[in-house]
Amino acid sequence: MEIKFGDLSREYREIKEEIDRAIKKVLEKGWFILGEEVERFEEEFAQYCGAGYAVGVASGTEAIAVALMALGIGPGDEVITVSHTAVPTAVGIWMTGATPVFVDIEEEGMLMDPEKIEEKITEKTKAILPVHLYGQMADMERICEIAKKHNLYVVEDAAQAHGAEYKGKKAGVYGDVACYSFYPSKNLGAYGDGGAIVTNNEEIYKKAKLIRNYGQETRYHHKIMGINSRLDEIQAAILRVKLKYLDEWNEKRRKIAGIYDEGLKDVVKTPLELPGRKHVYHLYVIRTGKRDELMEYLKKKGISTLIHYPVPVHLQESFREFTSSRLEKTEKIVGEILSLPMHPFLKEEEIEFVIMHMKDFFLNKQP
Ligand SMILES: *Cc1c(COP(=O)(O)O)cnc(C)c1O
User: Fold this and answer.
1) Best mutation site among 110, 132, 181 for ligand 1, i.e. most ligand atoms within 8 A of its Cβ?
2) CB of 229 closer than 6 angstroms to any ligand 1 atom
3) What DSSP designation does 232 have?
4) Which of 64, 154, 292, 357 has the fewest CB atoms within 10 Å, counting from its CB?
5) Does residue 180 line the site of ligand 1, with CB under 6 A?
């Protein structure tokens, strides 16, 4: 048996007719940028998140950049974020000219440690940017409390957290603005690049809408400085079809996580669902001291695994100019984490196959 890490062709086969129809409709209409599909999707996605507004942009990275620009954050400003994340989190900050400042994570959820934030706040700090990594939201209550005390914005990186909840609310509700990615492999993915910002703040919404379209208010009249970062009509049409399935697919991920949890709890550290959270398992990340050997072993058995992420942002060559103190927990867990195959179309026998070989590795192949 060969088990791929993700398999979007299975998804497409499931919803082929609806997707084909949605794309055809856009092609026949002949309108590709900022039209009805994007508008509808923005309404539907904002409603799904329980927030007032959404603005479609070209990627998750640019969602972060546009959100920060809409808050007036740029050169000379500092934004506090985590180093244990996908590099684009910090790239989105860098794009605005602001400086990313990295804080450590807590060990249970591997998310931003609120208790480490205050020591990094300076007079230049403008925002805190937590990442809802792996499909689980950071401690938004505590983070927002700290932000309020120091008069800082909260910008959420929700690129891995479509549908995740903290005390019954989704990303975009607690913070000033949340940034989503629709990269194909995300829980809600386009068939190309895409992203969105979600907010309850009308002013941020209006500014972000201008910024994504060269600051243009009415045709050829440019009110503020902006860039070109738009979600296109074909991707929006695809996302509208897929949004209807998001809850069902997240439930499937949660069910698969439950089976993994039960099967693997005696051999590795399985991921924790923290109090008050609804984890949507964008990634299922286990921890073990024998990570590299395990990864190699599973590969020989035909099972693809990945590491999210092997090099923290503050240790990336490209981020050398942004100095950071040591981040003890971030640097410790990168040697232990391993992401197992996780997508809504995994079959029961495939999940059992992974569990069997994991157990085999630990119980039979080890001295
Ligand atoms: C995917 C991702 C991004 C970037 O999204 P793109 O759409 O690829 O630009 C940002 N942050 C996190 C945590 C991500 O997983």
Assistant:
1) 181
2) no
3) B
4) 292
5) no
